[in-house]
Amino acid sequence: MQAKETLFADLVQGRAQQFQVPLYQRTYSWTEKQLRQLWSDILEQAELIERGEKANTHFLGSVVLAPSPQNDVTFARWLVVDGQQRLTTLSLALAAIRDHIRDAQPRDAERIDEQYLVNKWQNGSDHLRLLPTQADRSQFAAHVRGPLTDQAVGGGVAAAYTFFRRKLVEAADPAAPQDVFRIEQAITSRLTLVAVTAERGDNVHRIFESLNNTGLKLSQADLLRNYLFMKLPTRGEQVYEAYWLPLQDSLSNEELEQLMWLQLVLDGDDRVRRQDLYAAQQQRFEHGKATEQDIEAYIRELHRSAALFRRLLHPEEEPDASVRAHLHRLDAWQAQVTYPALMLLLDRRERGILDSSGTARAMSYIESFLVRRMICRVPPNNLNRIFQAVPGQLPLDVPVADGLHQLLSADNRFWPTDEELREKIRKAPFYQFGRPQQRRMVLQRLEESYEHPEPVDFVAAQLTIEHVMPQSPGDEWLRMLSEDVADGERVEDLHSRLQHTLGNLTLTAVNSELSNHPFERKQGLLQGSHLEMNRRIAATERWGAKEIAARADELADRAVALWPAPLRGVGRAERSRDWHLAHQVLAALPHGTWTSYGDLAAFLGSGAQAVGNHLAGTPGVANAYRVLTSEGRVSEGFRWTSEDEGGDVRSLLSADGIRFTVTGAADPVQRLNADDLALLVTEDDDRAEGEDTAQRMQGGSQGEETRADRFFRQLAADDSPETVEAVRALFARWETLGGWIGHGAGQVTTSAFFMLGEAGAPGRGIWPLTLYPGGGRGGTAEVVFQHLAAREPFTDRALRAELLARLNEMDGVDIPEGKLELRPNFRLSVLEKGRNRELLAETLAWFRGRWEERGTA
Predict the structure, then answer these.
(1) How far is residue 125 from each of residues 114, 145, 336, 431, measured CA to CA in Å?
(2) CA-to-CA distance for 115 and 117, rounded, in angstroms?
(3) pLDDT at 680
(4) CA separation (Å) from 390 to 337, 394, 450, 474?
(5) Residue 436 phi, psi (nearest 5)
(6) For 327-381, what is each residue's pLDDT tens digit?
(7) How many CB atoms are located within 10 Å of the residue 267 CB?
(8) How do the residues of the chain divide into helix, strand and coil, expressed in percent and rounded to 5?
């Protein structure tokens, strides 16, 4: 066997050749977790290229090749013994780049095609430079050379291609644009591979087996510890007892690794990644010819820094009350990206350069930077880079807090101004951006700003976010809202535009009691609240568009006072960021789905007319023709924006899997609303509050209503006795199958989950359906495809597609395939039919069977 380091470009370019994935290889299986990590590595290399740093590359792994039995002198064919996931993913990334630039730069698109993806003069399967295993072949071929058919839109290959298309749109964000050709260069010439080439006659299957035997890998902290004490031949015992053992006892192995990485960053290495920690620190010691005294000094410094680092992990250990409050809030925000800046502040205070007052003020800038960006929907994708650069970029000629304020206010940091903050609080769908705990913290801080004489214990109160005007409004709400509708606007569109804005949200511990009741009923409950913001809502006579806007303005005043503004001179580019988010979500529209101008406007916090004007005047927006009127028709004002586009829109929609009704309108079942669109671009695993912490609730103390009792009480309030009994029967059937029913406190307080796995173990369970009482419109069963896509064995899209097909066998259920990555729902009332109940019970048994088989596949 021969082994050599190579680049993707060197491996696949040159003469006609093909890399064939053998049948014994598994199908393409990378999920978004692996894709996100690769994309992060690619962007990092693209940034190094932009800075002109030529030496640094990123090692991606090995590729083991063997001559194919079909090999001949004119056309080299190689079996991919190991590394097919890497080769397939990189090929799909390049196909996505080719398609991303095809209209604007057709010659470069053709170049990418011929250099990396196809053998131009070969026909049939020989046309492809990479030939995946049989199960993936048709999908891969469709994405590399077309045409894209209905059969090619599902599965991991399609998901990876779509991921890269979406990320390329994101990378073109005017707020922080990244050159697509640097991204191409990073993929082809900065990701190194070790190509291991077997000789003819070698046992390639034996090689494959040995390469895929897994073992417990040493962490970066383990490797560095071993290296350090190898370098302490005479002082090792004393240093271990005095510094390392206390250090190891105070931090977990993962926390210790993070501290070691932070130490490098604080020392000025703002480009090192955690996975490269060992190599980077070893290189520094070797380059500086470190002595035993140098190694001991490094470990002693780690020991000192550990006490500071623990305050980030455990804010209650911070002695100063003001600094402690900031650390608690940043911990609740899960702001680990800010650790380099926070460690710098604590270190400067420890050394006497900064006092506690200045430390708290500097932390207020960090908090404001995060909060304002979240409210104003600035993508968080560059936060790591921003805060990792703080130690090396902090101005030296001004006090530390002022320097941090100045640094975060730089034009390329995009810290929203007061004007931007007010605008977004009034119009943007706050509930659809950021993480649940971040949204709760914003509302908590706003409540605290009222300085109520009896402060609320927010931890003990277990408050959740409540929509004052509910997400599923009854007739009384719609009648009230109809009084505020402007000319030409539908009441449903007005509701969609306002429901998730900050002015319509509050905190409450009685979410289930408030439910979707009319405002008069909610007023009484809110009046008895200990929260000042709720009392003010209760004092309002009605709750419509004007009242929501007035409350938004009041909260905006408080937000401006709470979170300091950036220094003047910050570049705005707000409109570009908004429209870039529109481009990103349209690029991610699944096959077989469409959306409306109103839905897209509600997602953006804009207006339908503004959306229409933008799409009509902006060339090159992917899937713009799939934005229709709310009736599912092509807008009369729709026009193609360049000569490169065109054709009959209805034909294109049909080719994209859109069905049409007898009236000629797009099938409303395939429409994605604003909430669906938000799911398309989120990468946060905590999408539904409380789901992963669903608990088994068998009973409570005497006289206490359990969550299960509350669920059925609310279900019975809106659904027929037949529906309620059908749900009870399904719960009993599920428990006989070995599952359990969880009841969680999430965005809708009462809910039920068909759970498998260890009860009460966060993140370990799996469930196919979440049931919600209807709050005036009938209960629903939400099919959590998006949750399943990250959990074995349902990471296999074919299994999720089978689940969808089984559910669609029920009369009254018609979930389109385009929602296979989302969270579609159906009415629980369909379970009144005995046949439907039996079909769902059989589907649940099938689901459990597939889950049990996951370890034997």
Answers:
(1) 15, 11, 48, 48
(2) 6
(3) 83
(4) 11, 6, 34, 51
(5) -55, -45
(6) 999 999 999 999 999 999 999 999 999 999 999 999 999 999 999 999 998 888 7
(7) 15
(8) 55, 10, 35
Of 376, 595, 580, nearest in space to 496 by CA: 595
Q: pTM here? A: 0.70
Query: Residue type at 662?
Result: V
Residue 844 and residue 768 in contact, taking contact as beta carbons nearer than 8 Å: yes
Residue 196 φ/ψ, nearest 5 degrees: -105, 120
Burial of 834 (0-12, 13-18, 19+ CB in 10 A): exposed
With b for 16 or more beta-carbon neighbours within 10 A and e for fewer, the 406-432 pattern comes to bbbbbeebbbbbbebbbbbbbbbbbbb
Q: Nearest Cα to 119, choosing from 128, 132, 131?
A: 128
Which contacts of 645-653 are long-range, i.e. CB under 8 A and separated by 24 or more positions? Answer: 645/103, 645/619, 649/625, 652/625, 653/594, 653/625, 653/626
**818, 838 in Cβ contact below 8 A?**
no
Token pair listed for 229: 């004490």
What 3-state class would DSSP assign to 649?
helix
Q: What is the 3-state secondary structure (H, E, C) of 120-161?
A: CCCCHHHHECEECCHHHHHHHHHHHHCCCCHHHCCHHHHHHH
Question: Which residue in this structure is represented by tokens 């005995």?
Answer: 834
**Cis omega (within 30 of 0) for bond into 518:** no
Distance of CA 312 to the CA centre of its chain: 24
Q: Which pLDDT tens digit goes with each residue over 23-46?
A: 656 788 898 889 999 999 999 899
Helix ranges restricted to H, 288-332: 292-313, 321-332
Amino acid, res. 85? Q
Q: Determine the angle formed by the axes of helices 339-350 and 400-408, rounding to 10 degrees.
A: 160
User: What is the number of other CB atoms lying within 10 angstroms of the CB of residue 37?
Assistant: 12
pLDDT confidence band for 570 (50 / 70 / 90): very low
- Beta pairing class for 130-131 and 17-20: parallel
Q: Can you tell me which residue has the tokens 């410094």?
A: 301
Q: Quote the CA–CA distance of 305 and 770 in Å, as a whole number.
A: 45
- Tokens describing residue 586: 């349209």
Contact 344, 404 (CB under 8 A): no
